[in-house]
Design brief:
Elements (H helix, E strand, L loop, with lengths): L3 E2 L4 E2 L4 E2 L4 E2 L4 E2 L4 E2 L4 E2 L4 E2 L4 E2 L4 E4 L19 E2 L4 E2 L4 E3 L3 E2 L4 E2 L4 E2 L4 E2 L4 E2 L4 E2 L4 E2 L4 E2 L4 E2 L4 E2 L4 E2 L4 E2 L19 E2 L4 E2 L4 E2 L4 E2 L4 E2 L4 E2 L7 E5 L2 E6 L13
Length: 250
């Protein structure tokens, strides 16, 4: 029932540990953190102050590579970093090479892959999957079970509803030409995607653009427009009262 803590690990004043935790070499955990039970924190991981990590979570996991993977094996990934006052749920997996800012909530069973940057004040929902080479800004909401494909970018104040799916491969795994054209999706500041929508590779949702629930996004959505359907088509302008500039203090 004891914890396994490397001699080189540093644990700040006021931090509490549950049982059966494994804390690797050169891990640094700040002050007043709460670490649950059966948590694994891999070597070199940096955790700032006032961070909560719940049971059975893994931080700093190294990626696996299939011989068929399009991604090359990376042997020199930087350690994972988690900023002040983050809350990390149960059974979350955060890979090495992640940089996570301050005041983020990453809910139970979410996965954040390697080479991901996440800013501040974001909500990553239960079971959400953030693939590699993704950049997320500040104050976004990525809801339950959404899937953000590799090479995507989400700016600030965006909303991605439950069960949204994104893609980066127009060739669906065939034809060597596909290796030249991998592109994730881009959601610019204030963009919103409704529940159970699908966004095809390389598509851009411009500032304050909105995709209605159940839509299939096959073309870019212009700034301030509502698109809906399969395939999605323009259905008018976002109401003035819903524009981001009119809601920043609400």
């Amino acid at each position: 029932m004891e914890n396994q803590i490397a001699e080189s690990a540093e644990i700040g004043q006021g931090t509490t540990l549950g049982k059966l935790n494994i804390i690797g070499d050169n891990v640094k955990i700040g002050k007043n953190c709460q670490i649950g039970n059966n948590v694994i924190i891999h070597a070199g991981t940096m955790i700032a102050d006032d961070v909560r990590i719940d049971d059975r979570t893994i931080v700093g996991k190294l990626p696996m590579r299939s011989p068929r993977s399009i991604f090359k094996e990376e042997i020199n990934l930087k350690p994972a970093e988690i900023g002040n006052r983050c809350q990390i749920g149960s059974a979350v997996i955060i890979y090495a090479g992640c940089q996570i800012g301050e005041y983020n909530l990453i809910a139970d069973m979410a996965t954040v892959r390697e080479n991901v940057e996440i800013g501040d004040y974001n909500i990553i929902g239960r079971g959400a999957a953030i693939e590699n080479y993704v950049k997320i800004g500040d104050r976004n909401k990525l809801e339950t079970n959404c899937y953000l494909t590799a090479y995507s970018r989400v700016e600030d104040y965006c909303f991605i509803a439950p069960c949204v799916a994104t893609s980066n491969d127009n060739y669906m795994g065939r034809d060597p030409e596909r290796f030249k054209h991998f592109r994730g999706v881009t959601v610019k500041t204030g963009g919103r995607i409704g529940v159970n929508s699908t966004v095809l590779p390389g598509k851009v949702i411009e500032e304050d653009g909105m995709a209605g629930g159940g839509s299939v996004i096959t073309t870019d959505i212009p700034s301030g427009e509502i698109w809906l359907g399969n395939p999605a088509r323009s259905r008018g302008k976002v109401p003035e009262k819903q524009l981001l500039d009119n809601n920043l203090d609400k």
